[in-house]
Amino acid sequence: MSFWKPGTERPQGRVVDDEEGGVLFLSGSHSSSSSSYGYASIEKQRQRLPVYKYRTAILYLVETHATTIVVGETGSGKTTQIPQYLKEAGWAAGGRLIACTQPRRLAVQTVASRVAEEMGVKLGDEVGYTIRFEDVTKPDVTVLKFLTDGVLLREMMDDPLLTKYSVIMVDEAHERSISTDILLGLLKKIQRRRPELRLIISSATIEAKSMSDFFRMRKKRREPENEEHGLEVEPAILSVEGRGFNVQINYAEEPVPDYVQAAVSTVLLIHEREPTGDVLLFLTGQDDIDAAVQLLSDEVQTNGKQSSGLIVLPLYSGLSRAEQELVFSPTPRGKRKVVISTNIAETSLTLEGVVYVVDSGFSKQRFYNPISDIENLVVAPISKASARQRAGRAGRVRPGKCYRLYTEEYFLKHMSNEGIPEIQRSNMVSCVIQLKALGIDNILGFDWPASPSPEAMIRALEILYSLGVLDDDAKLTSPTGFQVAEIPLDPMVSKMIIASSELGCSQEIITIAAVLSVQSIWISGRGMQKESDEAKLRFAAAEGDHVTFLNIYKGFHQSGKSSQWCHKNYINYHAMRKVLEVRDQLKRIAQRIGLVLKSCDGDMQAVRKAVCAGFFANACHLEAYSHNGMYKTLRGSQEVYIHPSSVLFRVNPKWVIYNSLVSTDRQYMRNVITIDPSWLLEAAPHFYQLLKPDSLH
DNA sequence: GAGCACTGC
Fold first, then answer.
1. Architecture of A31-240 per CATH?
2. CATH 3.40.50.300 domain residues, chain A
3. What pLDDT was estimated at residue A2?
4. Distance, angstroms, CA A132 to C1' B8?
5. Segment A116-126, tens digit of pLDDT
6. All residues at 6 or more sequence positions from A438 whose CB lies less than 8 Å from its CB, including other chains
7. Where exactly does CATH 1.20.120.1080 map onto chain A?
8. What is the CATH number that goes with domain A247-422?
9. Distance A138 CA to B4 C1' (A)
10. pLDDT at A204 > cutoff 90
């Protein structure tokens, strides 16, 4: 094991043990084995959670502070217990509600049902939840409401001050998702108008200090509003220890030249030298993972003796439901499971039984370039916070070990403390329209927990202006702007839907919008390319991918929404169910905002014009001299190609519009449709007026 | 002839 030096034993050997270790939030004492078996009443179990001994403190802080920040590691029980404490203390009296937000739907559902169970009530009565497509609450009965932060943002459109809530707990704030950040910015504004509202920001990392700075109330001269309420303006910070076990950290002695290879060797070393316990290996994406699975499987084949007993399983979101579920099956006696995963296992999924974590130090991250208006997925180094989170995955059942495929020096000196918040890595178009719809006029002056770049904001304003969603004063136009804001999709898609109402093809366009909003309706898999491609040809339309989607939807509908039909045609049944759900929601919204639901009965010109009305900015022209299918974007003369998965691949029509770009070695257009260039001037005269008329021929 | 980290309304 010369490649590795033994882990540097830190004080208490905790996961959160680095140079900032002693700061303020780490309570040293924690029970290392509080899990016990056998019967215990729910009440006893609740009292055994680390958060229980802070119950009085938390309630006191919430009573006396506008904002309370709770730093708690996984297993502290904060998410399930704090809402119950608040209810027990009377915060839900008088028809008020307590809200607890989560970034993900699954978490909302599981936490809500757990809390309902602990309280001995039926889910949907006193304890309920709301996620997109599912509202499991009862008016005047539900007092504890769990919801995604996105849903709470939507609720603000009807009730900007969130008047029915007495306390709002924003959980997992350290993940810094876009909707969490918007929510935090808006909640800060609400606090000024509603000093009686209490906020609890719950986070797993030590970033609490910057969060505290953000929520510090400025004292206004002459009107010490909050002092009248007897509230502290300074947020309170409380730290609750977790219930994880010690994780011993090991670093690479030297930087590794190839992390996939190093990861595979490390897994084999663990298998050879360490006692039983499953291994979780973090890589960046499907390519890495498939390569590692292959290398390990080869090893098992050729070197059977040492590596027998290894069960190697890949895990990423693109896998089918059944393939994903394999990783949760219990490891047979005498075997060792190795799960090779993307970041999905860092936050979204929890694997029990993991004792060893191998961390490559990388993940795929989205970056947005506001100059080219292109979002890219890039393999980038993770932050210290992520590294700790990954390591913690080894300490859920018993003390574990984490092998970092980078040096300690690299960790200490070169890794950033926190990742870049998503809002600084994304296109801001949806964000801007949401704020506008909530009446925030001065978008550029909005007080964010982390500010997006001015370039990204300006680019978003430009795009929204060209869509006719914002006017010269950057106010929402009526009705288009307000309608776009009501539709929970990218504004370009929303604009397409609105245009389809006038063009008489809204039934078709709503179907297309629903298909575009799911990841992929095709079954992916390396072994079945050929069959899958042949199936695609059965639906292929000369106009392009959007019309092909219509053909598929029609076939699915005519089959009676049959899963066998999907299977036969290499179409993902679950994705199609999702399409139906989204389509239903869009239909309801369209009716509510006064759009005409109408079918164009096969007039695909209307459909193409509607696509044009939303996506005119993505128009491309085939280069005349090009023999390899090179297109240039009209707007920026960017070099782009039709993606091989498109039905128009190798067809290469002269004029196309794409739905999105995928950047690898080239820029590929995904989901492409043919257009007539004269429609561009019709759809967006202001946008294309500078182009010479002859350039459109 | 290529490939989609992960969420969410």
1. 3-Layer(aba) Sandwich (3.40)
2. 31-240, 247-422
3. 31
4. 9
5. 999 999 999 99
6. A156, A157, A160, A186
7. 461-697
8. 3.40.50.300
9. 39
10. no
How many Å from the CA of A103 to C1' of B7?
7
Alpha-helical segments (H) within A357-445:
384-392, 408-409, 429-437
pLDDT digits (tens, 9 = 90+) for A305-363: 666 788 999 998 878 778 888 888 888 988 999 999 999 998 888 888 899 999 999 99
Bases on strand B under 7 Å from any protein CB: 1-9
Q: In the predicted model, what is the mean pLDDT of chain A? A: 86
pLDDT of residue A457: 93
pLDDT, mean of residues A454-467: 92
Q: Name the residue with the least CA to C1' distance from nucleotide B8.
A: A150
What is A97-132 written as a DSSP string?
Answer: EEEEEESSHHHHHHHHHHHHHHHT--BTTTEEEEET
Strands A198-203 and A67-72: parallel
> Closest nucleotide to A434's CA, by C1' atom?
B9
User: What number does CATH give the domain A461-697?
Assistant: 1.20.120.1080
Q: Closest by alpha carbon to A370, among A414, A319, A424?
A: A424
Average the pLDDT over A464-477 and give the result: 93
Residue A409 corresponds to which tokens in the numbers above? 């020096």
Count of CB atoms situated within 10 Å of the CB of A518: 16
Nearest protein residue to nucleotide B2, judged by CA and C1' positions: A644
B7 C1' closest Cα residue: A104
Nucleotide of closest approach to A364 (CA, C1'): B5
Q: Are A614 and A495 in contact (CB under 8 A)?
A: yes
Per the CB < 8 A criterion, the answer to whether A610 and A509 are in contact is yes
* Residue nearest B4, CA–C1′ metric: A318
The SS3 assignment for A2 reads coil
Q: Strand order in A400-404's β-sheet?
A: A247-251, A400-404, A354-359, A278-282, A336-341, A310-315
Residues A5-51: pLDDT tens digits? Answer: 333 333 333 333 232 222 222 233 333 333 444 456 888 888 888 89
Per-residue confidence band for A130, with pLDDT thresholds at 50, 70 and 90 = very high
Work out the angle between the directed axes of helices A545-558 and A506-517 (0-180°, nearest 10): 100
Q: What DSSP line would sit under A573-626, residue for residue?
A: HHHHHHHHHHHHHHHHHHHHTT------TT-HHHHHHHHHHHHGGGEEEE-TT-
